[in-house]
């Protein structure tokens, strides 16, 4: 088993498509530290707040108040990826925050993984890309890299990742944009550059990394802004396809209110042809991505 297969095989709690990206977020944080500082140890006390912020920002809503103490401890059980030491010697004291703090727990990439990263300069990028693509919507990758300090310029996407995702339909974007008349389903933006649509995306309501198909009934034509806000959980849909806005979102400038807050309660634009978004895909997004409660 190579290193990409190992990070893709990490054990994560899973039930009916629920998200639990705690271990991937910890590994991405550790890879960012390695890229900047080398393979030194990471004290839990120093990493606690940035790790918990990653979970709040990019984890599912139901984990908004949980901590990263569990993955800090339990990632040691996966195949040569992570190890924890304390002042008393090797081994994690357990998954409780108080124990990790009092024992001065320190985590680090497993020495075998660190040696492999030293020997292959391209491995870090492949591992990070694998973790991102297997666990998060593409619109979130740049934000996660910014938060973890990762620079993935030129990093390749390993073939092993695509083999684990639903087959990609190259016609998905065109089918979705055409169905909505090349207009954002939330704001009616319909920009063209030399007669070519610009700033419009085919957004997956249920992410591909969580079995979301490339079917029009899982797609919305959205402008780039509203696509990103949908994937961040700022925007969502009710089963009758009314737009919802997270009550956690705030804005100071009038233009932000106009572009986001004023969408609350509006019906999403219906496709001019083809199916509407399926209710079960909306239910998944509401439970796994949308930052409840709605405004």
From TrEMBL:
Keywords: Endonuclease, Hydrolase, Nuclease. Transmembrane segments: none annotated. GO terms for molecular function: endonuclease activity. Residues 3-151 form the ScoMcrA-like DNA sulfur-binding domain. InterPro entries: DNA-SBD_ScoMcrA (IPR058813), HNH_nuc (IPR003615), PT_DNA_restrict (IPR011396). It holds the Pfam family HNH_2. This is Putative restriction endonuclease. The keyword NADP does not apply. Residues 184-237 form the HNH nuclease domain. It comes from the Bacteria.
């Amino acid at each position: 088993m190579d290193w990409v297969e190992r990070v893709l095989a990490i054990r994560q709690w899973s039930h009916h498509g629920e998200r639990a990206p705690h271990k991937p977020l910890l590994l991405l944080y550790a890879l960012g530290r390695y890229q900047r500082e080398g393979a030194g140890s990471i004290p839990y006390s120093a990493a606690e707040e940035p790790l918990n912020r990653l979970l709040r920002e990019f984890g599912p809503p139901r984990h908004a108040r949980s901590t990263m103490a569990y993955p800090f401890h339990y990632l040691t059980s996966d195949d040569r990826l992570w190890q924890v030491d304390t002042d008393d010697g090797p081994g994690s004291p357990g998954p409780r925050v108080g124990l990790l703090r009092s024992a001065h727990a320190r985590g680090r990439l497993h020495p075998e993984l660190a040696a492999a990263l030293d020997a292959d300069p391209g491995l870090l990028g492949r591992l990070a890309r694998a973790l991102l693509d297997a666990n998060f919507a593409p619109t979130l990758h740049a934000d996660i890299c910014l938060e973890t300090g990762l620079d993935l310029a030129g990093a390749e996407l390993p073939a092993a990742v695509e083999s684990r995702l639903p087959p990609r339909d190259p016609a998905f974007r065109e089918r979705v944009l055409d169905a909505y008349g090349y207009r954002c389903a939330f704001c009616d933006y319909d920009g063209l550059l030399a007669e070519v649509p610009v700033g419009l995306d085919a957004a997956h309501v249920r992410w591909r990394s969580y079995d979301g198909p490339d079917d029009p009934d899982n797609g919305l034509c959205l402008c780039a802004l509203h696509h990103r806000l949908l994937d961040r959980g700022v925007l969502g849909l009710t089963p009758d396809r009314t737009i919802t806005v997270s009550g956690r979102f705030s804005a100071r400038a009038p233009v932000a209110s106009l572009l986001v807050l004023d969408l609350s309660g509006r019906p999403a634009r219906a496709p001019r042809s083809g199916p509407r978004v399926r209710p079960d895909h909306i239910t998944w997004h509401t439970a796994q991505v949308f930052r409840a409660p709605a405004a």
